Known about the structure:
Elements: H1 2-24, E1 46-50, H2 54-62, E2 70-77, E3 80-86, E4 99-103, H3 104-107, E5 115-121, H4 125-140, E6 144-145, E7 156-157, H5 159-168, E8 180-184, E9 187-191, H6 194-198, E10 203-210
Parallel strand pairs: 6-7
Antiparallel strand pairs: 1-2, 1-5, 2-3, 3-4, 5-10, 8-9
Helix pairs in contact: 4-5
Amino acid sequence: MRYLLQNKIILGFVLFLILTSMVACRQVSSNDIAAWDKLQLQEGDIVFRRGSSLASQIVLASDTRGNYSHIGILVLDSGHFKVVHAVPGESEPKQPDRVKMEAIQDYFAANKAVAGEVMRLQIDDSLRVKVAASAKDCFSKKILFDHDYDLSEQSCLYCTELIWYVFNAIDIDITHESRSYVNFLSFKGDFIFPSDISKNEELISIYSFNNH
Length: 212
Protein backbone atom coordinates (compact mmCIF):
# COMPACT_ATOMS: atom_id res chain seq x y z
CA MET A 1 0.00 0.00 0.00
CA ARG A 2 2.82 2.38 0.86
CA TYR A 3 4.51 1.80 -2.49
CA LEU A 4 1.19 2.23 -4.30
CA LEU A 5 0.70 5.57 -2.60
CA GLN A 6 4.21 6.64 -3.55
CA ASN A 7 3.58 5.64 -7.17
CA LYS A 8 0.37 7.68 -7.23
CA ILE A 9 2.23 10.70 -5.86
CA ILE A 10 4.96 10.29 -8.47
CA LEU A 11 2.37 9.88 -11.24
CA GLY A 12 0.53 12.98 -10.02
CA PHE A 13 3.78 14.96 -10.05
CA VAL A 14 4.57 13.82 -13.61
CA LEU A 15 1.10 14.85 -14.77
CA PHE A 16 1.60 18.22 -13.11
CA LEU A 17 4.87 18.69 -15.02
CA ILE A 18 3.17 17.76 -18.28
CA LEU A 19 0.34 20.24 -17.69
CA THR A 20 2.85 22.91 -16.71
CA SER A 21 4.81 22.35 -19.91
CA MET A 22 1.59 22.67 -21.91
CA VAL A 23 0.87 26.04 -20.30
CA ALA A 24 4.44 27.11 -20.97
CA CYS A 25 3.76 26.72 -24.70
CA ARG A 26 1.45 29.69 -24.22
CA GLN A 27 -1.32 28.47 -26.48
CA VAL A 28 -4.68 30.00 -25.72
CA SER A 29 -8.08 29.28 -27.18
CA SER A 30 -10.13 32.03 -28.75
CA ASN A 31 -12.71 31.19 -26.06
CA ASP A 32 -10.24 32.65 -23.56
CA ILE A 33 -9.79 35.85 -25.51
CA ALA A 34 -11.42 37.98 -22.80
CA ALA A 35 -8.58 36.96 -20.50
CA TRP A 36 -5.91 38.40 -22.79
CA ASP A 37 -6.22 41.73 -21.00
CA LYS A 38 -4.70 40.05 -17.93
CA LEU A 39 -1.71 38.51 -19.72
CA GLN A 40 1.81 39.89 -19.83
CA LEU A 41 1.29 41.93 -22.97
CA GLN A 42 3.30 45.04 -23.76
CA GLU A 43 2.81 48.12 -25.85
CA GLY A 44 4.41 47.66 -29.23
CA ASP A 45 3.59 43.94 -29.41
CA ILE A 46 2.57 42.91 -32.92
CA VAL A 47 -0.72 41.03 -33.29
CA PHE A 48 -1.40 38.72 -36.23
CA ARG A 49 -4.71 37.14 -37.12
CA ARG A 50 -6.01 34.76 -39.76
CA GLY A 51 -9.48 35.58 -40.99
CA SER A 52 -12.04 33.56 -42.92
CA SER A 53 -13.33 36.31 -45.23
CA LEU A 54 -12.77 36.34 -48.98
CA ALA A 55 -10.19 39.12 -48.60
CA SER A 56 -8.34 37.04 -46.00
CA GLN A 57 -8.33 34.01 -48.30
CA ILE A 58 -6.88 36.10 -51.13
CA VAL A 59 -4.07 37.31 -48.87
CA LEU A 60 -3.35 33.78 -47.64
CA ALA A 61 -3.35 32.44 -51.19
CA SER A 62 -0.90 35.16 -52.26
CA ASP A 63 1.28 34.99 -49.15
CA THR A 64 2.40 31.40 -49.55
CA ARG A 65 5.00 31.71 -46.77
CA GLY A 66 2.60 32.96 -44.12
CA ASN A 67 -0.10 31.80 -41.73
CA TYR A 68 -1.84 35.14 -41.20
CA SER A 69 -3.87 37.55 -43.30
CA HIS A 70 -3.85 40.67 -41.10
CA ILE A 71 -1.68 42.51 -38.60
CA GLY A 72 -1.92 45.28 -36.00
CA ILE A 73 -0.01 46.70 -33.04
CA LEU A 74 -0.83 46.84 -29.34
CA VAL A 75 -1.19 50.16 -27.51
CA LEU A 76 -2.39 51.11 -24.04
CA ASP A 77 -5.47 53.32 -23.91
CA SER A 78 -7.11 54.23 -20.59
CA GLY A 79 -5.33 51.32 -18.94
CA HIS A 80 -6.52 48.69 -21.43
CA PHE A 81 -4.79 47.07 -24.38
CA LYS A 82 -6.14 48.00 -27.77
CA VAL A 83 -5.07 47.26 -31.31
CA VAL A 84 -4.25 49.94 -33.85
CA HIS A 85 -4.57 48.60 -37.38
CA ALA A 86 -5.41 49.61 -40.93
CA VAL A 87 -8.18 47.50 -42.38
CA PRO A 88 -10.71 47.82 -45.23
CA GLY A 89 -14.38 47.07 -44.80
CA GLU A 90 -14.66 47.77 -41.05
CA SER A 91 -15.42 51.47 -41.11
CA GLU A 92 -18.56 53.13 -39.83
CA PRO A 93 -21.44 53.49 -42.35
CA LYS A 94 -20.69 56.09 -45.03
CA GLN A 95 -17.18 56.59 -43.61
CA PRO A 96 -13.97 55.89 -45.56
CA ASP A 97 -11.66 53.07 -44.52
CA ARG A 98 -8.96 54.38 -42.19
CA VAL A 99 -6.62 53.39 -39.36
CA LYS A 100 -8.75 52.25 -36.42
CA MET A 101 -8.24 51.40 -32.77
CA GLU A 102 -10.27 48.73 -30.98
CA ALA A 103 -10.09 46.46 -27.94
CA ILE A 104 -7.94 43.37 -28.40
CA GLN A 105 -11.04 41.24 -27.68
CA ASP A 106 -12.81 42.85 -30.64
CA TYR A 107 -9.76 42.51 -32.90
CA PHE A 108 -9.65 38.77 -32.17
CA ALA A 109 -13.44 38.28 -32.18
CA ALA A 110 -14.58 34.89 -33.46
CA ASN A 111 -16.16 36.40 -36.57
CA LYS A 112 -12.84 38.04 -37.50
CA ALA A 113 -10.18 35.55 -36.48
CA VAL A 114 -9.87 31.78 -36.73
CA ALA A 115 -6.30 31.98 -35.45
CA GLY A 116 -4.06 34.62 -33.95
CA GLU A 117 -0.69 35.33 -32.43
CA VAL A 118 1.11 38.02 -30.44
CA MET A 119 4.79 38.55 -31.27
CA ARG A 120 7.33 40.83 -29.66
CA LEU A 121 10.47 42.52 -30.93
CA GLN A 122 13.15 42.54 -28.26
CA ILE A 123 13.84 46.25 -27.89
CA ASP A 124 14.12 48.70 -25.02
CA ASP A 125 10.83 49.58 -23.29
CA SER A 126 11.28 53.25 -24.13
CA LEU A 127 11.39 52.39 -27.84
CA ARG A 128 8.33 50.19 -27.46
CA VAL A 129 6.41 53.13 -26.00
CA LYS A 130 7.50 55.33 -28.93
CA VAL A 131 6.26 52.75 -31.44
CA ALA A 132 2.88 52.62 -29.71
CA ALA A 133 2.70 56.42 -29.59
CA SER A 134 3.39 56.58 -33.33
CA ALA A 135 0.59 54.08 -33.97
CA LYS A 136 -1.86 56.05 -31.83
CA ASP A 137 -0.84 59.19 -33.70
CA CYS A 138 -1.81 57.51 -36.99
CA PHE A 139 -5.21 56.76 -35.48
CA SER A 140 -5.63 60.31 -34.14
CA LYS A 141 -4.78 61.77 -37.54
CA LYS A 142 -7.44 59.52 -39.14
CA ILE A 143 -4.99 58.28 -41.77
CA LEU A 144 -6.89 56.60 -44.60
CA PHE A 145 -6.45 53.03 -45.72
CA ASP A 146 -4.11 52.69 -48.69
CA HIS A 147 -6.26 51.00 -51.34
CA ASP A 148 -3.45 51.49 -53.86
CA TYR A 149 -1.04 49.50 -51.67
CA ASP A 150 1.66 52.00 -52.51
CA LEU A 151 4.78 51.87 -50.32
CA SER A 152 6.37 54.90 -51.96
CA GLU A 153 4.36 57.35 -49.83
CA GLN A 154 2.70 57.18 -46.44
CA SER A 155 -0.23 59.59 -46.59
CA CYS A 156 -2.36 56.42 -46.64
CA LEU A 157 -1.40 53.08 -45.09
CA TYR A 158 -2.40 49.45 -45.53
CA CYS A 159 -2.12 46.97 -42.66
CA THR A 160 1.49 45.80 -42.93
CA GLU A 161 2.58 49.20 -44.21
CA LEU A 162 1.33 50.72 -40.94
CA ILE A 163 3.52 48.37 -38.87
CA TRP A 164 6.52 49.02 -41.11
CA TYR A 165 5.88 52.77 -40.83
CA VAL A 166 5.64 52.98 -37.01
CA PHE A 167 8.82 50.94 -36.52
CA ASN A 168 10.59 53.10 -39.08
CA ALA A 169 9.78 56.01 -36.75
CA ILE A 170 12.38 54.56 -34.34
CA ASP A 171 14.80 53.65 -37.16
CA ILE A 172 13.97 49.94 -37.18
CA ASP A 173 13.04 48.14 -40.39
CA ILE A 174 10.75 45.45 -39.02
CA THR A 175 10.75 43.75 -42.45
CA HIS A 176 14.54 43.63 -42.89
CA GLU A 177 13.75 44.83 -46.43
CA SER A 178 11.75 41.68 -47.15
CA ARG A 179 9.16 42.15 -49.89
CA SER A 180 6.78 39.84 -51.72
CA TYR A 181 6.29 40.19 -55.46
CA VAL A 182 2.70 39.95 -56.69
CA ASN A 183 1.33 39.83 -60.21
CA PHE A 184 -2.39 39.30 -59.78
CA LEU A 185 -5.11 41.13 -61.71
CA SER A 186 -4.51 44.87 -61.15
CA PHE A 187 -1.91 44.28 -58.44
CA LYS A 188 1.64 44.04 -59.67
CA GLY A 189 4.80 44.86 -57.80
CA ASP A 190 6.46 44.46 -54.42
CA PHE A 191 4.25 44.42 -51.34
CA ILE A 192 4.69 43.78 -47.63
CA PHE A 193 2.77 40.68 -46.55
CA PRO A 194 2.31 39.59 -42.92
CA SER A 195 5.00 36.93 -43.45
CA ASP A 196 7.51 39.62 -44.43
CA ILE A 197 7.19 40.74 -40.81
CA SER A 198 6.48 37.48 -38.95
CA LYS A 199 9.59 35.84 -40.44
CA ASN A 200 11.80 38.42 -38.72
CA GLU A 201 14.01 36.19 -36.56
CA GLU A 202 14.21 38.89 -33.88
CA LEU A 203 10.51 38.46 -33.12
CA ILE A 204 9.45 36.02 -30.41
CA SER A 205 6.01 34.45 -30.02
CA ILE A 206 4.21 35.44 -26.81
CA TYR A 207 0.70 33.97 -27.15
CA SER A 208 -1.26 32.21 -29.83
CA PHE A 209 -4.54 30.44 -30.48
CA ASN A 210 -6.01 28.35 -33.24
CA ASN A 211 -9.63 27.29 -33.55
CA HIS A 212 -8.77 24.40 -35.87
